Amino acid sequence: QQPVQSPQAVILREGEDAVINCSSSKALYSVHWYRQKHGEAPVFLMILLKGGEQKGHEKISASFNEKKQQSSLYLTASQLSYSGTYFCGTEHGSSNTGKLIFGQGTTLQVKP
Amino acid sequence: DTAVSQTPKYLVTQMGNDKSIKCEQNLGHDTMYWYKQDSKKFLKIMFSYNNKELIINETVPNRFSPKSPDKAHLNLHINSLELGDSAVYFCASSQAPQGPQYFGPGTRLTVL
């Protein structure tokens, strides 16, 4: 079952904040976040494992709510370079295969 | 230094032909993947190998056959190409099956 991301698209001005949500109907083992710029490959941002972890990466951080089966990606003080499509990839069960099911993506556009 | 490389970058071919895409990683990773990204940007896992052993084999037509001659290489052979096979195919690798995945630049396959 594909996780659902919201919003589908967001437009920001430089310096504004954004939150991207990823919800699953199945119990989550881990959540990966990736960013893909147009015409390029997805780039790894961070992994969150079950346990309600929160991780940070400069001005980009994420949380994982195991009970609600969802993860949120927080982008603060956005920069032009943040533009792209953000994907969450969910892993279910500890099968140790690395099988990720990706959401449909959230397109983020940061304007000057 | 290129971490995950794919050849060719573009592939245009006629229906019914057979083609191969090659992938190599120089990261020393044990796990490699093939993904298909369609025109709506939906990213879907196809296959995964860990230490040359097939560990993920999604519901993919058997016209698609992966082959891993060694840990650093994972190739994808497609027989009897169909119009619906047109997509961008990404190779990825990770240190272990549940680790961050690093994507190659992609191969854009167009079937005419």
Task: Give a structural overview.
The complex is a heterodimer of chains A (about 110) and B (about 110). Chain A is mostly beta strands and about 110 residues long. Chain A is built from no helices and eleven strands. In chain A, strands 2, 4, 5, 9, 10 and 11 form a six-stranded mixed beta sheet that branches. In chain A, strands 1-3-8-7-6 form a five-stranded antiparallel beta sheet, with no helix packed on it. Chain A is globular, with a radius of gyration of 13 Å. Chain B is mostly beta strands and about 110 residues long. Chain B is about 0% helix and about 55% strand. Chain B is globular, with a radius of gyration of 13 Å. The mean pLDDT of chain B is about 95. The interface between A and B is medium-sized, with 23 and 25 residues.
Overview features:
heterodimer; A: 112 residues; mainly beta; five-stranded antiparallel β-sheet; B: 112 residues; seven-stranded mixed β-sheet; 56% strand; globular
Share of residues in helices of chain A: under 10%
Low-pLDDT parts of chain B are: none
Name the poorly predicted regions of chain A.
none
Distance from N terminus to C terminus of chain B (CA atoms, Å) equals 34 Å
| Proportion of residues in β-strands of chain B | over 45%
Taking all residues together, what is the mean pLDDT of chain A? 91
Largest sheet of chain A: 6 strands, mixed
- CA radius of gyration of chain B is 13 Å
Overall form of chain B: globular
Task: Count helical runs of chain B.
Answer: 0
Order of helices and strands of chain A: EEEEEEEEEEE
**Structural class by secondary-structure content of chain B:** mainly beta
Order of helices and strands of chain B: EEEEEEEEEEE
Globally, the shape of chain A reads globular
The total of beta strands of chain A comes to 11
